[in-house]
Amino acid sequence: MTSKATFAAGCFWSVELFFQRVVGVSKTRVGYTNGTVENPTYTQVCSGKTGCAEAVELEYNPAEVSYNHLLDLFWSKHDPTTLNRQGNDFGTQYRSGIYYHSEEQKNQAIASKEKEQLKYKNPITTEILPAGVFYPAEEYHQRYLEKGGQCSTKNCTDKIRCYG
């Protein structure tokens, strides 16, 4: 049996590749969520007028990887104290977010955020909200970095290089 998890942590290409490498994650797809526009395009999302976050939806096997471990990985992947920005990418679509699919995920996300906050002087800006409708991004965005030649095999530790 698989479960879903949805995370936003900046540019979805690198977030997707990061989670593709995790044992227990069986499927990833990038897309847009928690906005106000139905079925938005990449161009619309980049305009900042849709309210959508670039996000990655995962299917995972809880017998192989726990949601708490996925949360730990999520926190390690980005700087959750920068509002609407990761690296050179900025805009509301690059915000940090955990979009939960159950009350159990919600409670685990809140607890993990409280624990993570102890590591930072600045406040964590990550939003924790119910998972809204997830609109898959255009096909060319799916597995983008893998298609560009970067390693997506489980446990791969090669540096992830983001490019556009």
What does this structure look like?
The chain has 164 residues and is α+β, with helices and mostly antiparallel strands. The protein is 27% helix and 24% strand. The chain contains five helices and eight strands. The chain has helices spanning 12-20, 42-46, 67-77, 103-117, 144-147; strands at residues 3-9, 25-33, 53-60, 85-86, 89-90, 96-100, 127-130, 134-136. Strands 7-6-1-3-2-8 form a six-stranded mixed β-sheet, covered by helices on one side. It has a two-stranded antiparallel sheet with strand order 4-5. Strand 4 and strand 5 (89-90) form a beta hairpin. Helix 3 crosses helix 4 (103-117). It is globular and about 35 Å long.
Category from helices, strands and their pairing: alpha+beta
Shape: globular
Spatial arrangement of strands, main beta sheet? 7-6-1-3-2-8
Give helix and strand order, one letter per element, not per position. EHEHEHEEEHEEH
Identify low-pLDDT runs.
Answer: none
How would you state the average pLDDT, rounded? 96
Q: Total helix count?
A: 5
**What is the CA-based Rg, rounded?**
15 Å
Beta-strand percentage range: 15-25%
Main sheet properties: 6 strands, mixed
**Would you count the extended β strands for me?**
8
Helix content: 25-40%
- The rounded distance between the terminal residues' Cα atoms is 35 Å
